[in-house]
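Reviewer 2 asked us to include a model.

Predict the structure of this chain.
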Amino acid sequence: MATGLNGSSINLFNDKPSDDEITIPLAERVRPKKLDEFIGQDNLTGKNGIIRKFIESGNIPSIILWGPPGSGKTTLARIIAEGSSSDFIQISAVTSGVKDVKEVIDRATYNKKYKSKKTILFIDEIHRFNKAQQDVLLHSVENGTLTLIGATTENPSFEIISPLLSRCRLYRLEPLNYDELDKIYRRAIKKDKELKKLKINLIENAKELLLLHSGGDARILLNCIEQAVKTIKPDKNGIITIEKSTIENIFQKRSLLYDKKGDYHYDLISAFIKSVRGSDPDAALFWMVRMLEGGEDPKFIARRMIILASEDIGNADPYALTLATSTFTAIDYVGMPEAEIILSQTATYLASAPKSNSAIKSLKNVKEEIKNEPDSPVPLHLRNPTTKVHKSMNYGKNYKYPHQYKNHFIKQVYLPEKFKDKIFYEPSDSGREKIIKERLEKLWEKRRKK
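Predicted model (structure tokens):
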């Protein structure tokens, strides 16, 4: 039997109906209780799946489950816990802090020392924990005081600190496919105590639309079915017929919301980036707030600003990259909602800054040339004469050390012979890059003024 943080016993899959069971969402009511009921992720849960082997052996390592919403992360964690004799504690990184984690560690320490009992801590949305919060877990995970199961929709390489990630096994969960969603739908109709009372007729084209538009997310699928059943009145024979138009209406309403994993997610971030690139701070703020109000992870926005600071601003305002990078660190320290202020400052600064795409253009120029000439030799005077043999081969001969010359500059060839007159980096006339352009034209007058 698993237990909660306050010490009370918890049956994770209580079969006894409660007075308000009908108010529990369908997705929760039909949540699988055993591994054999679990649908999807066969590579992990199938006959030879590694998670199945963990459960059967009773030896559960610390695990990070990485996958999209509705792919089964929480369900797997509960199944693992229910199948073990461990003390299972579940918290959400959204609503919990260092104090809560320390309470769990104290309890796990007590369990280990006085009860010889293992403790499993499940942290939902673990990517929401900042570095300080994740640091608290390190020692207890390493010495086996507790077993950590973390669930995340975000890339752990970006969101989980390296020391913690190295102490956990990482498993990727995939979006559920069409057939798996169909099985989940059929199981819900057959197993749910409320739906079993109803006569449901899901028209075939409505079913196809439902399965396709669920986007691999079992929760979306089940919520849609539940909503359809609640909004349609039975006919005179007591049959609830769900037509394609009903499913379309439900998904149309959903599209007004912010779907972090759907096309709308990418439409909004695209609008934000284009607004910054277009030097419109008002539009940039508008789209950024739309994302934040919809529940977007502020780190996702910060990462995109780091990229565009180089891609769209670059040397026109080199400080843009520093500010964007500092923003990512700052929001990790302060968390939401104060992180919104930092994001607002950076978004408006980047949108208002002078623009240049010279960095990415230059990169493409070089890559194209290297693709055609991948083995251009390094000029002898640029090679490092580390041995006598190298010196005898004229490595480093005639190299001129710039700091020994006026203004710390001396003209010499730094490119392979074939490219010695090639211009890859072409500064714009925008912002600070105009100064850079003028300086380079003076230094390399012959090459840059043709």
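Confidence is low (pLDDT under 50) at residues 6-19. The first strand starts at residue 2 and ends at 3. We have added this to the supplementary material.
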